[in-house]
Amino acid sequence: MKEKRKTLVKFSGVHKRFGSLQVIKDLNFKVPEGEVVSFIGLSGCGKSTTLRIIAGLEEVNKGTVERKFDNLGFIFQEPRLLPWKTVLDNICFVLKDRIPNKVERQEIALHYLNLMELTQFKDYYPAQLSGGMKSRVSVARALAIDPDIILMDEPFSDIDFPLRLVLIDSLKDILEKESKTVIYVTHDIRDALLLSDRIYVLTARPMQLKEELFISEEVRDINNPKFSELERYVINLLKEELEIKRLDEMRVESIVIK
Ligand SMILES: Nc1ncnc2c1ncn2[C@@H]1O[C@H](COP(=O)(O)OP(=O)(O)OP(=O)(O)O)[C@@H](O)[C@H]1O
Ligand SMILES: [Mg+2]
């Protein structure tokens, strides 16, 4: 019998407002240990806000948030690197408390930089990197600290699709080997399909769950016809939400004009 997995994050009836703007309305979901769970939704629907709530950086107005993990890695939408440190030192820096030995720290940092195809840029400073390269450093840094759960906010959005495929493959390898729990936020359906065990498709603001999809190993393959089928299916779900959002904006405009 399959062992029941522990739930690391659970939202029950969560509501979140910023002033008069209702961003999240009655959001319910769970993230089981060892799964890669993607959140996919339109720009501005509340994905980053949800990650910030999970990280404890934002309070909710109503509902409960259960967090059953000790440490978390957060890859923010904007990579937050220390500009005065090299790529290698940006990673070694976060390992200082856990790994006292400098050589060991560097080995770990280099291992993750290699996975993100960045070895040759280890001595560069952040200002000398492209946007996508900075994002890859922040992915390497989050993996290196070996947290229970990693929150990733569109880490590969600045990267061309062929390289993204390589990076996603590397990421999948280590996530499987190290059985990590990941919450991956994206508006790229292909990223979500390639990586996830489970995808939560979100509605436009105020955000709720629109649909929960379970992705099997065989579907996580760009050459599988089911991949394209699911891609189209999710695109249509998001198109529906875009339509709802437009109608809603027109309704608000007409109220203002009246
Ligand atoms: N600190 C804040 N104060 C006021 N409004 C905020 C704040 N943070 C987010 N919002 C608003 O909440 C909504 C959701 O923002 P959020 O950043 O969560 O969206 P998102 O789904 O991550 O979008 P994107 O895909 O463009 O990154 C937006 O309308 C945004 O303006
Ligand atoms: Mg965001």
Structural class, from helix and strand content?
Answer: alpha/beta
Percent helix among the residues?
25-40%
Q: What profile does the largest beta sheet have?
A: 6 strands, mixed
Taking the alpha carbons of the first and last residues, their distance comes to: 62 Å
The CATH topology of the largest domain turns out to be Rossmann fold
Considering the protein shown, what is the CATH homologous superfamily of the largest domain? P-loop containing nucleotide triphosphate hydrolases
- The strand count comes to 9
Bound molecules: adenosine-5'-triphosphate, magnesium ion
Number of domains: 2
Oligomer: single chain
Order of adjacent strands in the largest pleated sheet? 5-6-7-3-8-9
CATH architecture of the largest domain: 3-Layer(aba) Sandwich
- Taking all Cα atoms into account, the compactness measure Rg is 19 Å
Low-confidence stretches: none
Q: Write down the secondary-structure element order.
A: EEEHEEHHHEHEHEEH
CATH class label of the largest domain: Alpha Beta
Mean pLDDT: 91
Rough outline: globular
Helical segment count:
7
Which strand-content bin applies to the residues?
15-25%
Short overview:
Helix content is 40%, strand content 24%.
Pick out its properties.
258 residues; 7 helices; six-stranded mixed beta sheet; Rossmann fold; binds magnesium ion; binds adenosine-5'-triphosphate
Polypeptide structure, described:
GO terms for molecular function: ATP binding; ATP hydrolysis activity. With 258 residues, the protein is α/β, with parallel strands linked by helices. The protein folds into 2 domains: 1-70 and 149-224, P-loop containing nucleotide triphosphate hydrolases (Rossmann fold); 79-147, no CATH class. It has 7 helices and 9 strands; from the N terminus they run βββαββαααβαβαββα. It has helices spanning 47-54, 87-95, 102-115, 131-144, 161-177, 189-195, 225-257; strands at residues 7-18, 21-32, 36-40, 62-67, 72-75, 149-153, 181-186, 198-202, 209-214. A hairpin with a 6-residue loop joins strand 8 and strand 9 (209-214). The longest helix has 33 residues, at 225-257. The protein is globular, with a radius of gyration of 19 Å. The protein starts with 6 loop residues before the first strand and ends with a helix. The relative contact order is 0.17. The model has no long low-confidence stretch (mean pLDDT 91). The structure holds adenosine-5'-triphosphate (ATP) and magnesium ion (MG).
